[in-house]
Design brief:
Blueprint (H helix, E strand, L loop, with lengths): L9 E5 L7 H11 L3 E6 L2 H10 L5 E3 L5 H16 L13 E4 L18 H21 L10 E5 L14 H19 L6 E7 L13 H11 L8 H12 L9 E5 L10 H6 L2
Parallel strand pairs: 1-2, 1-4, 2-3, 4-5, 5-6, 6-7
Helix pairs in contact: 1-7, 4-5
Length: 275
Amino acid sequence: MDFLQVSGRNILVMGVANRKSVAYHSAKVLADAGANVIFSVRSEQRREAVQKLFPDAPCFLCDVEDQVQIDRLRDDVTELLTSSDAESEDSGTLHGIVHSIAFADYSAGWLPFHETPRPAFLQAIDLSCYSLIAVSNAFRDLLDKEHGSVVTISISTTRMAAENYGYMAPVKAALDSSICFLAKAFSKFSTIRFNAVCPGLLKSSASAGIPGYVDSYLYAEEATLRKKAVQTGEVADTVAFLLSPRSSGINSQGIVIDAGMSTNYFDADLVNRGN
């Protein structure tokens, strides 16, 4: 039974880094369910990695800091989907986008929030937040107006001021807000949905560059109700669901996947350890 109903649907996945990334796991779930997955990555090195992981899938280069490259990606995907050998029955349509792109420059070291370098903050906003707006706008005419779905990757909460995550929490807060405004704006001419998947701490490639992340991860694992950290595959399953017609009633939302951590800050074992 094809419960997800994504078989034959054309999905653009942006941001695969390696086998640990949310984008990779999401693409794997979608491909296994029969979707036609198209990839976009920032560098030739990443493209070579994707081609090893998904040998038969098309993969394009796009640096989302450059609007020219975003527009070229749209044109390349349009050409691919309208070509005579496109496999999807609805070959001229893109049914969904996975935006799994985030970047923070921590090269200045672990600084208190008020010392955040302006260039680092603005670059993080551009890459991690504005890129979703720019990509959505570029692809608006190619996306399925009735059943299209755009999913981005956020974090479980932007209200927890973790020193080591620093300025990326406000950046993700801007991303969360952008979901609402994109959903509202696109509702004027379509029923394309915009949602975010908001996981707790993961063992992913993106987390590797965050100072002190391992200690935070281990603490978060103990704070979950099940005493087991959120798995990247669990996040990918939710991404696939939000891209599916099965989630048609969900729009302008952030789906938190934290294994109950947000309800368990006063867990007795954790409190006793602090005494």
